[in-house]
Amino acid sequence: MPFRQVGQIEDAELEGLYYNRYRWYNSETGTYLSQDPIGLKGGNPTIYGYVHDPNTWVDILGLDVYKLVAKQDGWYPVFERGKTQPVAYTKLNKGDVYKIGETKNFKKRYSEIALNNGVINKSKTGAFANIDGNIVPVGVEPIFVSEGKTKIEDQTLEKKLLKEYMDNNNELPAGNKICK
Fold first, then answer.
1. Computed from CA positions of residues 36, 39, 41, 43, in that sequence, does the dihedral angle turn out positive or negative?
2. What share of the chain in percent tops pLDDT 70?
3. Which residues are paired to 78 by β-bridges?
4. Model confidence over 78-97: pLDDT tens digits?
5. pLDDT tens for residues 57-81?
6. Are the C-beta atoms of 63 and 154 separated by less than 8 Å?
7. Where are the domains of the chain?
8. How does the average pLDDT of the chain come out, rounded?
9. CA 45: distance to chain centroid?
10. Can you tell me the mean pLDDT for 152-176?
11. CB of 110 within 8 A of CB of 104?
């Protein structure tokens, strides 16, 4: 069988060795032949070892850090921790940051319909604008700040971006509930 763990492909000429995108894995010793390209940043205590638990420690390409920005002027829901419904609405102009976040799978987390309606959580409450006396949905669009880094790197970046936003605006973006 040419496959072993997630993303590993066996080399028929080099018995017991499996290629893993960036380096070779030796199935007899349970270690890699070269150092982890990200060193100790991935949280593994050894730069030659396989992950602690291959069933839960799967991070093929890492996370994406993103900003959701207003597609047009409108009223966007404000959320608080522990509440699924908005506690208020805030006026945002086109291009203003609505939310800063990180996720493993952006397309799974936010459908195109949800983005077009400014819906970012399970409340199904979206953003809207009053255009010529008509209430119409307005959306958000993603700007990817970082893609495919380690969980630790991306969570650190997300926290840094949230802190910078709070330092400049004295509050979290309307779509964020907390700064972890």
1. positive
2. 73
3. 88
4. 888 888 888 899 999 999 99
5. 444 545 789 999 999 999 998 888 8
6. yes
7. 1-58, 63-169
8. 78
9. 24
10. 91
11. no
3-state SS of 39-70 is HHHHCCCCCCECCCCCCCCCCCCCEEEEEEEE
What is each CA distance from 80 to 54, 57, 136, 147, in whole angstroms?
Answer: 35, 31, 24, 27
Distances (CA, A) of 92 to 53, 76, 126: 44, 7, 13
Calpha distance 89→85 (Å, rounded): 11
Please give the Cα distance from 162 to 173 (Å, whole number). 8
Terminal-residue alpha carbon distance, the chain: 43
CA pair distance 180, 173, nearest whole angstrom: 14
